[in-house]
Amino acid sequence: MDKSKQALLQALTGQPIARTPVWLMRQAGRYLPEYQALRLKAPTFLDLCLTPALASEATLQPVRRYDVDAAILFADILLVPYALGRSLVFQDARGPKLDPVDSGAALNKLDWNPKKIESVFETVSLTKRKLSPKTAFIGFSGGLWSVACYMIDGDSRHGFPATLNALRQRPGFVQSILDILLAATKEYLLGQIQAGVQVVQIFDSWAGLLTGDDFLRWVVTPTNRLVDLLKKERPDIPIIGFPRGARDEDYQVYVRHTGVDALSIDDSISLDFAKDRLQPVKPLQGNVAPSVLLDGERVIRQEVDRVLSALGPRHIVNLGHGVLPKTPPDHVADFVKAVHAWKPG
Ligand code: CP3
Is residue 126 classed as helix, strand or coil in its secondary structure? Predict the structure, then answer.
């Protein structure tokens, strides 16, 4: 595959870009009618993730419909706890539910069985064969902190009180879970890389629960350890970090001290701050508010212009979080077109 033609890889590695890259977090999913139809072919969401023919099709759907610069593997961050032996169900309206790791006994029972998620790597190879050489292929995992939150609390409904309490009462317990997740996540990402993804993104969706010293200890340090382990084996694979919801100053610490190659920013970050304080350190991705895609073409074009006028044509255009289920599919097409048509004013 000729990586030299991929705008996303070019932007991440400092080469001249063929065009401004754009893709969308959750570009596969419920807002697409073809995804809704595909979803019915698997009894559960977990089956969808673990059936290569179906997961590969879900990965490719948005790439067929839109001129996006990247495909993102269709899988989930919670497949890592699943392969550590936790039960996992995706409840339709209420999100994922795991059996909580709430005791030393539960911790001791964690047992990594990569066979449970081997099919994800098959999805990668199957998809890779079908992708155009111009489309970059992104793999992903959760940030260790965010996955630990789901493991300790079991779900996100109450804002992870058990996890936040454990940080104070039993920091050694939380650290043990992070250590286990470090080894497992490293294998999960290296498996994806081995099978053909060219970039990985670390989704630390709940990074914003912590600030200051806690953010450094529980988000930045574990991410840095993961990045170091990956870089030791595959220094050629760019890593995008996404500490969603973190405060401005914590984003600065993250981009300086985790070792990631690029930073994905959520829509709470102002463009001035991004331009002055973050972009000089690493390439940026983001940060159009997902709700903008509920608006019409004029608003979408204005937003694309606002972001690119501030951050320039090498910025990786994306949303500040995932596509909302109510998004009209045509608006995603308008968004991608607006990026590729953009000229400095
Ligand atoms: O297109 C893509 O971005 C690739 C696929 C992808 C999914 N999950 C599929 C999915 C990715 C990158 C993820 C990451 C993920 N999963 C995150 C990090 C990003 C974020 O949203 O902050 C998190 C926290 C999870 C855990 C998870 N999985 C939640 C909280 C939910 C339920 C909420 C929701 O949005 O529905 C899921 C289910 C899930 N993962 C769906 C999809 C398409 C919806 C399931 C369905 O089809 O009904």
Answer: helix
Q: How many CA atoms lie within 13 A of 226 on its CB side?
A: 35
Handedness of CA 62, 69, 48, 129 (dihedral sign): positive
Query: 35, 66, 82, 150: which is the annotated catalytic residue?
Result: 150
- Write down the pTM of the prediction: 0.97
Residue 129 appears among annotated catalytic residues: no
pLDDT tens across 148-170, in order?
999 999 999 999 999 999 999 99
Retrieve residue 292's tokens.
Answer: 């903008």
Contacts of 230 (CB under 8 A, 6+ apart): 186, 189, 190, 200, 237, 239
> Which has the closest alpha carbon to 223: 278, 264, 171, 277?
264
Residue 63 and residue 71 in contact, taking contact as beta carbons nearer than 8 Å: yes
247 part of the active site: no
Angle made by CA atoms 68, 69, 75, in degrees to the nearest 5: 80
Q: Does residue 301 carry a catalytic annotation?
A: no
Ligand 1: list residues with CB < 6 Å: 25-30, 39, 45, 72, 74, 76-78, 90, 95-96, 140, 203, 205, 244, 322
- Cα–Cα distance, 209 to 2 (Å, whole number): 40
- Around 129, how many Cα atoms within 13 Å sit in the side-chain half-sphere? 9
- What 57-62 contacts at long range (C-beta under 8 Å, 24+ apart), as own/partner pairs, is 58/28, 59/28, 59/123, 59/127, 60/127, 60/130, 60/131, 61/28, 61/32, 61/34, 61/35, 62/24, 62/27, 62/28, 62/32, 62/332
Residue 224 burial (CB count, 10 A) = 17
Q: What is the pLDDT of residues 176-210, one digit of tens each?
A: 999 999 999 999 999 999 999 999 999 999 999 99
Q: How many CB atoms lie within 10 A of CB 251?
A: 26
Task: Say how far apart CA 344 and CA 216 lie, in whole Å.
Answer: 37
